[in-house]
Design brief:
mainly beta; 5 helices; disordered C terminus; 493 residues
């Protein structure tokens, strides 16, 4: 079965009797065409389309910028919005959040417009969550607060950190002692902001990347500072970021872990996907050009010799002494794997602890047209012996994020990988099951299930497997009205 999430915008825009659509909300990456542009304050369409969470017997669909929507696990019917973050939490003083330069003054002017007129929430819940399996805790993060929630959604701990910088944070990591934030530097585009407010350009036009520094800030936030959980442990001043010696825009984090020696020295290792500031473009996210209203994956590809600008897997190593002072920080290609890659995943049973294997979606590099994106290959990397193994789909077939399913304690890589495959020639979707131990061998393919044509869907963002429900839920690219139309008519690639 398949269901669209009945968000507030979806209920308003779709006629339940005829099935016809009349778009009234502006998406963050689009403008209204054929609708009311000027004076339209419906700009933050919560489409609940980025990731899926199952916790405490309940199922939620998350989006980057609004409350999750709860859905019924067996019928997939929408139950409504769920306020995970405590709305009564106090705000950080604005003086701590903004510095008084020209762009910040402009931001201060825009804030009451965005929050008051356009009803944009000042508290942005990130769509990426983490599960600390050892402590049986759900970790979530909003734009200015972090929460720890037990299985029954009881709030166990909340911390708030004020970072005086303009950053965009999409994904993050945790270790036994820290929350790890990669800060992608952004700046306010004043002209773009004015055009967005007037409805002439997408709301995302208010932002642009800020490649003003050759380094990347990494914030190590203490998980249990001043508590009894980790007594007699000193922390560095978290307000001072570690500047990684590489300018990288971090997309997704596969895992992070730490190891402390007898002298209190701490080594932290992070595995992630990142791209260049030169390649990342708010105006052409996912190959979608809002000006033409077309989805063109060629925009996500670059010419030969520029592959390093594209998303690829990196390993970040940080060494701290016993007082928390940074002794060394390095960034390298993970296992020297230099092909464009994204969506790094591991066996979630060991999240936050040392892992041997990491999986990701990547490209075989065999195509003349669209050589790097969309992805057509799954890569398995052994971080100990540095070996790599791959499985590739057939010609003119593309894949999304791999999802690891553990066989419950028989070994870190003993399990299955689920991959959604899209066949261009037949315009059909398949659910591919791979044996994760056998990646790189001819018998790694366990099964390929054909999705019924009437339930066909395009490549998505992040998937989820719930073994006790026996359903796989995939978050689809329906972020804007134009993209939804393309998804319905099947993108040409």
């Amino acid at each position: 079965m398949a269901r669209y999430i009945e968000t507030e915008a979806q209920v308003e825009e779709r006629d339940s009797a005829t099935g016809e659509w009349r778009f009234t909300h502006r998406g963050p990456f689009s403008v209204l065409k054929g609708g009311k542009m000027m004076g339209n304050t419906k700009v933050m369409k919560n489409v609940a389309n980025t990731s899926v969470l199952r916790w405490g017997g309940r199922l939620f669909c998350l989006w980057e910028g609004g409350d999750p929507y709860e859905i019924q696990p067996r019928t997939l019917d929408t139950l409504g919005r769920f306020n995970v973050v405590d709305a009564g939490r106090t705000e950080v003083d604005d003086d701590e959040r903004f510095r008084a330069d020209f762009l910040n003054v402009a931001a201060q002017i825009l804030k009451p417009i965005l929050y008051g007129v356009f009803k944009m929430s000042p508290k942005r819940l990130l769509s990426h969550y983490k599960i600390d399996v050892r402590r049986n805790r759900l970790l979530i993060m909003s734009c200015n607060a972090e929460d720890i929630i037990r299985l029954n959604f009881k709030l166990l701990q909340s911390q708030e950190f004020s970072i005086p910088d303009h950053l965009m944070i999409h994904d993050w990591a945790f270790t036994d002692s820290h929350y790890i934030l990669f800060g992608n530097r952004i700046k306010l585009d004043v002209a773009g902001s004015m055009a967005a407010v007037c409805g002439l350009s997408p709301m995302i036009s208010a932002l642009s990347v800020n490649p003003s520094k050759p380094t990347s800030p990494i914030y190590l936030l203490p998980r249990f500072a001043n508590t009894t959980q980790q007594p007699n442990r000193s922390y560095r001043d978290w307000r001072i970021p570690i500047e990684a010696p590489s300018q990288m825009w971090v997309l997704h984090v596969g895992n992070a872990f730490e190891e402390r020696d007898v002298n209190g020295n701490l080594d932290i290792q992070i595995q992630a996907s990142s791209c260049s500031y030169q390649w990342f473009n708010f105006q052409k996210m996912f190959g979608y050009d809002w000006r033409s209203g077309k989805l063109d994956p060629s925009m996500m590809n670059l010419e030969h010799g520029q592959e390093k600008l594209l998303p690829h897997l990196v390993q970040v190593n940080i060494s701290l002494d016993g007082q928390g002072n940074c002794q060394k920080c390095g960034v390298n290609d993970l296992n020297q794997w230099n092909k464009p890659s994204d969506f790094p995943v591991i066996n979630q049973d060991i999240s936050g602890t040392k892992n041997t294997y990491i999986y990701a979606a990547t490209s075989s590099g065999s195509r003349q047209a669209l050589p790097h994106f969309p992805f057509d290959t799954v890569v398995k990397l052994n971080t100990i012996d540095k070996s790599t193994q791959t499985w590739s789909t057939g010609r003119r077939r593309f894949i999304g994020e791999p999802i690891f399913i553990s066989k419950n304690g028989k070994g870190e890589d003993d399990g299955y990988l689920l991959v959604v495959e899209y066949a261009v020639s037949t315009q059909r979707c398949y659910l591919v099951v791979l044996d994760s131990k056998l990646i790189g061998k001819k018998n790694s393919l366990v099964a390929r299930f054909e999705v019924p044509r009437h339930l066909n869907f395009p490549l998505g963002f992040h998937g989820f497997w719930a073994p006790n429900v026996c359903t796989s839920v995939n978050s689809q690219v329906s972020r804007t009205n134009q993209e939804f139309a393309l998804a319905s008519s099947r993108a040409p690639y």
